[in-house]
Amino acid sequence: MNILVTGTAGFIGYHLTKKLLNEGHTVYGADNINDYYEVSLKYDRLADTGIQKEEIEWFKWVQSTTYDAYKFLRIDLSDKERTAQMFEDFKFDLVIHLAAQAGVRYSLINPQAYIDSNIMAFTNMLEGCKNHDIKKLVYASSSSVYGLNSKVPFSEEDRVDEPISLYAATKKSNELMAHTYTHLYGIQTVGLRFFTVYGPWGRPDMAPMIFSKAVMKNDTIKVFNNGNQSRDFTYIRDIVNGIEKVSVQKIDGTNLVFNIGNGKPVNLLHFIETLESEFNTVIDKDFVEAQPGDVTTTYADTSKLVKYTNYKAQTSIQEGISQFVKWYKEYYGN
C-alpha cells in the first residue's frame, strides 16, 4: 500500500516507518521537525531511515538512500495550503496521523502549540482524506483523555468528558472530529489511545530518558507525587505491532477508538528500581508533590483491541528496560 505516515521524525513514527517499509509498503513521511526537544535526535532517527539532514528543506520531498520505497517531506501540517498540496502530490491508500504536539506539562506553558498542531493540523488531515477519497485514517489519541478516572482498568466505554490538561482536551477533540467526518463522509477513522510508550529512540521529555540522563550525569531526579503513581508502560515494539494491525488489517466498524497499552501498570518506584538495576547504580531521588495535569494511575483495558485484531503486548518491563538501556548507552555513550 501507499501509506502517508505523519510524525516520522518522532519516536513512534520512526519505528512504525521502519516496520512498514520492512513489510513491503511504500511510505511517505511528513514531519515539521520542531524544537520541542533536541532536533538532533529527530535528525538521527531520520538518518537511520536514509533521510539525510543536508537534503531536508521545507516542503521538498527527499528520497531515502536506504529504502527505495520511502520519501520524506518537511511540512507544517497546520499549513492548510501546503497540506492540501501534499495530498495532491501522491495517491495515498491509507493515512496514519501520528504527528502532534506532545507533552502534558508543556501544554501549561505553550497552549497555542497544541491548538496549531493538534487541532488545526488534524482538521487539515481530515480534509485531505475527504477531498481525495481516502477511506481509512488511523490517528494518535492518548490515554490522557481519561483524566482523573478512578475506575481501573480504563475502558473505551468510560466517560472521558473531563480532561485535566489542554493536551488531553485536544486529543479528545480529535476523537470527536473523527466521529464527525466518519458520519458525514464515510471515512473509517481509528483512534489509538496510547499508554506511556517507551523504548530505544524515545522522547527526552519522558521518564526513561530523564532518569537515564540523570544516571549518566550523576544528577538527582524528581519523583512526582512522592512516587505514588503507576503507569501502563508499553514497549515501542508492541505499540507499532498494534498500529500495523489496525492499519493494514481489514477491521469492521466505522468510527473506532482503541486502548493500546501493556495492560499491566507498573509503580513508578519499581520502574526506577528496574532502571537502576540495568545501569547497576542507585539514582539520587527528590520526592515532590504531583504536578498539575498529572494523573495517579494509567491502566489500559485492551480487550477491545484484542477482539478486533488479536493484539497482545508481549514485552515485560524487565526486557523493555534492558533493550532501552542498551540503546541509550550506545547512543549517548556510557
Automatic annotation (TrEMBL):
The keyword RNA-binding does not apply. The keyword NAD applies. Keywords: NAD. InterPro entries: Epimerase_deHydtase, NAD(P)-bd_dom_sf. SUPFAM superfamilies: NAD(P)-binding Rossmann-fold domains. Residues 3-261 form the NAD-dependent epimerase/dehydratase domain. This is NAD-dependent epimerase/dehydratase family protein. The lineage of its organism: Bacteria, Pseudomonadati, Bacteroidota, Cytophagia, Cytophagales.
